[in-house]
Amino acid sequence: MRAASTHNIPRSFLARHALAITVGVLLITAMLPASLLGWASWLGSLVDTAVTPIAHPVRITSGVFTPDPRGADPEQIRVLQNELERERLARLQAEQRAIRMSHQIAQLTQGAAVNPDVPVVQVPAPVVGDSGGLLLLRAGAAQGLTHDAVATVDGVQLLGPAQRIDHRTTRVRPITDRGTPTIQAAIMLDASASAGLACILAPTGNGTLRGDVMSDDDATPDIAEGTPVRLLDDTWPEHAQMLLIGTVERVEPHADSPLRRVVTVRPTVPLSSVRDAVFRVPSRPTPEAASP
Amino acid sequence: MNWAVFAILSWFAIGLDVGLAPAISPESSDIRPSFFVPLLVFVAMRAPHRTALWAGLVGGLMLDLIHPLARTGASPVIITGPNAVGMMLAAQLVVALRSMVMHRNPLTTAVLAFITVVVAGVAAIAMLTIRTLFGDGIVFSPTHELLTLLGSALYTGVVALVFAIPLSWFAPVFSFGGHHANPGRFAWSHADRA
Looking at beta carbons, which residues of chain B come within 8 Å of A272? Predict the structure, then answer.
């Protein structure tokens, strides 16, 4: 009888204090450094996978009642526009590659390393949901995504870098999200890749990006509203260069130095409400590819 | 309480939080309604005290796990605790208030859902603000989060108003049983008055 009572003491203690112990543990984990919270990502991927069968059909169904963020263009026109934009992207990337290769030739003569060109595989991924400002996409490591995968809309409009790749799902931070670091871009004053005007864009939090035009002087031509702006940033993977960031919505004089200009760029679709995305993934991982 | 029913409804509600809430939120804003909070309010109004707290804790933990926080220059991180503790505190508040409110009035669920989001949100924001003092690189602005919180709380109140009656249909399968909370002085049904 004594043995039974001593056996019951810890059980009753746990039963009475389980809630307090759990709260204590959660308060501690809430203050742990991020480097010690890797196990939570694993649990999070399990929950993501579990909610996908509910979230994805709901997302599709809600799309029937809400307007398509890509606009009301007839399907055929949109397909042709995307085709045109893909061709334009391919040409600009080829030109950019030629410019880079000329730099590499110059580097080679000085003994510098050369980065090989990277072929790209496109992986379609429906957007399942959105939480914490990060889009949840239904494609992951099982579909061949790697850390330098970049999400796009229709393969041409830059959506954002893959932030967390789980087995079946991936989190993507849209470039318009507040947490996105600044992006170097080129304002395409004409159809040539070498005619881009450099700018540094930061998300504003209202679906646009805003930033200073670099090397702005009197000789620089006017920037018209609607001018395309493309990614040209060494911190992004090579295969993402020249992807469309958006179009110039507004050009204003700089608040401190009126001779300089500030541009506001709006993506061609509201990035936080896209329904389908396409990942661009290098077909073989490159050690030098840096995630932004 | 029947935890299996709670688990299934929570799964459905969190699925709606991930899939539907972004689709019906105002464009270019972070305001999101919560579908889990009306469920938590429903449970906290009827379940035994400790069960209600556990429901808040477990549901909040699930919300923590689906809300990774962005970091500058690093992959997002999942922090377990802020929503879990916040939802538990909010459940405690609902338990404290439940003897003073009209259980069957959908407006009660709506108002309590608003309060729940505010209490849970303020607790979570406070914890994350303390955490940012250690310099973890989390992209987090308390002022912005608080403003968003108020919008989300109002929106959740509207959602709770819509879901209050459908949720009440599930009361029998929850088997709140003998631990059913005191219906309060404003209870409407004859059974409650008896």
Answer: 22, 27-28
